[in-house]
Design a protein that fits this description.
homodimer, 185 residues, mainly alpha, DNA-binding
DNA sequence: CGTAGTGAACCGAACGATCGGTACACTACC
DNA sequence: GGTAGTGTACCGATCGTTCGGTTCACTACG
């Protein structure tokens, strides 16, 4: 293996850092170029279809991250409460206690949302499914479990929006804190 | 009153329609010009500071709308449950049952969010305050009321994001439906 | 061995289009 | 006449994208 100063994952993570902060429309190629340390044409070498490809890659990368760090642990070992708490602390770190906004929300709201419809729906669905399965595991009826799982994701996304809008991350902390009780009854 | 083909409110509403769909960064001046039927120079006549002024005006217009249509009714007559239900049906209409996204969220997430920090915080705060006051009115302890009010706004914003992400407005409908129970216990 | 060739990774300069914004003359109505 | 509102033409900057070209590790072949 050659030195590989710029592993693809590292590039994508830097793209994500920009997009999650300023959104798809707000992320210019030159900004993405600066953030990655790659020239514009080098970016096009890695992502032949341009900006859309970059965001797509970010979305795929995020999906893998979520599967490994959130969805799988939800299905893993430990009591349901423990597993929910693990998810919460992962979320708290990923969103920097509410200071960072959500890439998913950025792409849902951007002007190019139509182009990301499928992967976005996939990610949200998997998230809800993983949570619902956990609740079923905890002895909660399937229908109730789904409703609560959906509600949990709703709250997380909403808390991030509100934290940004109020300029106060307290609402995100409070929302995360009361998640276990809301989910598990 | 002269014919006034383009009353200011009508202009601002059309600006809002664009911004709420594609966000601040995605809303180009030419798109805003087309949407309002006004030439660029006319737009700059009405909003001397350009795009930022337009979004600012949209935000002020929205604040007035929310005060008149949401916050005041929350403090008005009728049982607390009735007042909550009135808010919900207004929200359902305003967001077209979940098909339209939230202007506030768009401005919170856009790259120019710093410029709208104050009015955004104001609106969210007023909303939470109005809801909390209603709950106190319904006999709920102040601290609990605030937490629940905050949670309600969190859910509304989150449900709009998720409705867009899933491409299914069902989640918005379900969230609104269970709001009265969540708020009033 | 050497050396010609290959392809992946990279780059800055430049493209046409559009960006947000301005200048100014004109019209409509007081 | 004055002034609010408008249309046209235009500005420099930046947009996303493409171009021409360089570097360099590696392979094929004499």
């Amino acid at each position: 293996m050659p030195p590989a100063i710029h592993p693809r994952d590292e590039i994508i993570q830097r793209l994500m850092r920009v997009i999650r902060r300023v959104g798809y429309d707000g992320a210019s190629i030159s900004a993405l170029s600066k953030a990655t340390g790659l020239g514009k044409s080098s970016l096009y070498h890695h992502f032949p279809n341009g900006k859309h490809d970059m965001a797509r890659a970010v979305l795929e990368h995020l999906a893998e991250f979520l599967r490994a760090q959130l969805f799988e642990p939800l299905r893993g070992a430990g009591t349901p409460k423990r597993r929910v708490e693990a998810m919460i602390s992962t979320l708290d770190a990923f969103y920097a206690e509410g200071h960072e906004s959500c890439v998913l929300a950025q792409l849902v709201l951007g002007s190019a949302r139509a182009g990301f419809h499928a992967p976005l729906r996939m990610i949200f669905s998997e998230w809800i499914d993983a949570l619902a399965d956990l609740l079923v595991d905890a002895g909660i009826a399937r229908a109730t479990a789904r409703r609560r799982a959906e509600d949990a994701v709703v709250r997380i996304e909403g808390a991030l929006v509100l934290a940004g809008g109020l300029g106060d991350v307290g609402v995100f902390a409070r929302t995360l804190k009361q998640l276990p009780a809301t989910l598990l009854g």
